[in-house]
Design a protein that fits this description.
522 residues, seven-stranded mixed beta sheet, alpha+beta, elongated
């Protein structure tokens, strides 16, 4: 191993001294399975399948320690083995941590790389080469999420960076202890709520402190840490979500950022709307984050009545006109008899004229429908799928509204009253995303897989539609998008109420969560 550390992968300090490696572990192992969601898909550039992991899972696992042998160095240079053309041989995947802080995400070590070590705050240790710099550099980040009916100002800050403005009186220098977990996050939340100055269409709306939590953040994911635990101070980050309720989509949102320090000279920012993210970097001389509504073709998804097609509404009978016509029979008969008896007929004739006038006047208004109950045999597979899709879209869109009363009102458009509470509670639970702290995903896509129908045995004139569908929802926090996909197999009893289709009963036979990137819907 000493030969390896002097002739193969060498590490030198600022004085050019090579660090000598000691072997800790060297043993054969099987490769850890890390399936990629892209494996097997066609690369749009090369038109070739994206390769998966090697079939041979055998690897040699080695752990090496390169002792400093004295004073910690100011810099370390990593020198990979090179061939005669100056190309690393073999290719080396490279990840670097300094005292628990990720200095660089996974990269290829393609040349000599020098790491400058910051022993006071390892967060600011960095490689000179841009290709080896961590993508999530700043410890302070701010995000604006602009959605129909809601604007969210989300802030993600490193506790150690917040020490420029707040005193936490921690017990030690390395950890936030379990008993300090809640006081620290509450203090940070109160600090930002006091300074919140967001403008929506030029006005300051009431801010709602939606959530404060420790957040474990990386390039691949972010997750909430809810239960108090001991947290390393170097990497401890607290997320704050401040929510504003709006009417529809605003036209302009503006946030000013004035928290800069000797360490924090750049704040990563982003504005996320239905068109996508718009990244921005805030600096002392450019500290305004301003979003303007350029969504010219964007239509806010809404909830609409699903009107019953004329084919399923029965035959329209002009009952008032029909009654008038029937009444004309005896009156007309009376006129004939009066003429035969040579009696006056003026009054009966006036009655006939009046009945004809009433029949004509009432024809556009006085109708009833006969045979209007929907029948399973009246719809084909395509029509059933379209009906189920329209009803489900209404149900899921109702949850895009933030006020609970609004949600119930929108659900009532497509759900009968007795079922409202059950669907409300069931949908809230089924679309929660654990990594997003239990936040509810907004359903973006519904796919009907299969439907079949029969006349309902429990409700006269209704349909029992057995449907299988998938619902894919997303929720975004701090620049990360969490996706959840559920598969459902259920029986929906669909009935006509006031001329509109509604879900009257719902029996979920199976609900399961699936990988949204697998491409499988069964």
């Amino acid at each position: 191993m000493r030969s390896f550390s002097t002739k193969k992968l060498t590490i030198t300090d600022e004085n050019g001294k090579k660090l000598l490696a000691d072997s800790v572990v060297a043993e054969p192992r099987l490769r850890t399975t890390r399936p990629s969601p892209l494996a097997g898909m066609i690369n749009p550039v090369t038109k070739m399948p994206v390769p998966g992991p090697p079939e041979d899972k055998r690897v040699l696992y080695v752990e090496l320690i390169y002792p400093f042998g004295g004073i910690p160095p100011e810099t370390l240079t990593f020198n990979p083995p090179m061939d005669e053309n100056g190309i690393p041989n073999p290719a080396i995947g490279f990840v670097c941590y300094h005292e628990g802080v990720m200095v660089v995400d996974f990269r290829q070590l393609t040349a000599n790389a020098t790491l400058t070590l910051d022993w006071d705050d390892p967060w600011y240790s960095s490689f000179a080469r841009k290709q080896l710099q961590r993508r999530l550099q700043p410890g302070v980040r701010t995000y604006l999420y602009i959605e129909p009916y809601e604007v969210r100002h989300e802030i993600l800050v490193r506790v150690k960076d917040m020490m420029s403005w707040l005193e936490f009186d921690l017990q030690g220098n390395d950890y936030i202890e379990e008993n300090e977990f809640d006081p620290v996050r509450r203090k940070i939340a109160a600090f930002f709520m006091e300074r919140e100055r967001l403008l929506i269409d030029g006005k300051r709306l009431k801010p709602i402190l939606d959530r404060t939590a420790y957040v474990e953040s990386s390039m691949l994911r972010s997750r909430f840490i809810e239960i108090p635990e001991r947290v390393p101070l170097n990497t401890a980050m607290v997320g704050i979500i401040i929510t504003y309720l709006t009417d529809g989509m605003p036209q302009e949102v503006e946030a000013r950022w004035d928290l800069f320090s000797d360490r924090v000279q750049k704040v990563t920012a982003s504005m996320i709307d239905p068109a996508g993210p718009f990244p921005y970097d805030l600096e002392p001389g450019d500290n305004v984050l301003k979003w303007t509504n350029y969504l010219n073709n964007y239509i806010i998804p809404t909830v609409e009545n699903i009107t019953v097609d004329e084919r399923y509404r029965g035959r329209r009978i002009p009952f008032v006109s029909l009654i008038c016509l029937l009444a004309m029979v005896p009156v007309g008969y009376g006129v004939v008899r009066r003429i035969g008896a040579r009696r006056p007929v003026i009054l009966p004739i006036l009655m006939l004229i009046g009945l004809v006038g009433m029949a004509v006047a009432a024809y556009p208004l006085g109708h009833t429908r006969v045979g209007g109950a929907p029948r399973a045999t009246g719809m084909d597979e395509k029509e059933r799928a379209q009906l189920v899709l329209a009803l489900l879209k209404n149900v899921y869109r109702a949850f895009d509204f933030r006020d609970e009363e609004d949600v119930y009102d929108k659900l009532a458009v497509s759900v009968s009253g007795d079922l409202l509470t059950n669907i409300y509670l069931q949908s809230r639970t089924s679309l929660e995303i654990e990594q997003a702290g239990g936040a509810q995903a907004s359903v973006k896509q519904i796919d009907i897989i299969e439907t079949s129908a029969r006349e309902s045995e429990k409700l006269s004139g209704a349909l029992d539609v057995r449907a299988q569908w998938s619902a894919t929802g997303t929720v975004g926090h701090w620049g990360h998008v969490h996706t959840r996909q559920n598969l459902y197999d259920a029986i929906l009893t669909i009935a006509v109420e006031d001329g509109n289709w509604k879900i009257n009963r719902l029996e979920v036979l199976e609900e399961k969560r699936v990988d949204p990137f697998s491409g499988k819907t069964r």
